[in-house]
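Reopening this one. Same input as before:
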Amino acid sequence: MDTIKKILAVIDPSKSEQTALKRSFELAHKSGAEITAFLAIYDFSYEMTTMLSFDEREAMRTAVINDRIAWIESLIEQFQEDLDIDCKVIWHNRPFESIIQTVLKDNYDIVLKGTHEHATLKSVIFTPTDWHLIRKCPCPVLLIKEHLWPANGNIIAAVNASADDQQHQTLNQRIIKDAKFIANLIDGNLHLVNSFPGTPVNIAIEIPEFDSTQFNETVKVHHTQTCHELALQYDIPINQCHIKEGLPEDIIPIVANELDAELIVMGTVGRTGLSAALIGNTAEHVIDNINCDVLALKPDGYISPLDK
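Same output, byte for byte:
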């Protein structure tokens, strides 16, 4: 992502504050992008109207759609002089499918969607629609909480610098490039975060002569070296690299909290079906534990299961 030309901002009909729309205004002001305020709407009472004629049912559906269009137009009206904004309301009972189908049909560069905050726990709750978008949307998905992006804020690119397979190496490059693009766009400071595993407990127990301290130090040196090499490729200061022992789902939220990060950029492999249920992926585990915006990216060449 070296440019943003088309933004799909998902409207939340249950909230008065439209965080995705507000963030889209910020990005569009800086990038010149077009914005589509998007809503998938479905009134389940429609299922109870089978006794009505086709025309009567269509009139009911049209009335609901027109009411939502009028509401969205009232949200964007004051911004239309400065920004290129339109709205789209689609009748669909599975919001994530309608979002992805719209992305595929109209080639959007990024999807913005607000998150929900648990009133008591004050933590972000990710809905089934969020998870489907993270797994299946072919373009980057920006999940947003309710806060500003101040100038000189911190942005985290979460990488696996020592990955030896081509897919993860390419994904590292994509994560850093997109994170740097956003950082430059909003005048943010880019940090790299790389975690590495400690000594497996079973090895330390079963092989008494095994030097776990030396093993850990060797692994740390390797990850530090590869992370610094990545940083140098993209002119990121070495002191903005954070290499820590532990699982990514533990380390990334810790560093995000220490830096008071505004945004985490990370990759997701986009697993679906049984493999997603059994294995999951790092992005999903991390998202459960953070309280800032997340930009989730797919590997190059990813094809959405809805792209048929």
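So the earlier flakiness isn't reproducible anymore. For the record, The mean pLDDT is 84.
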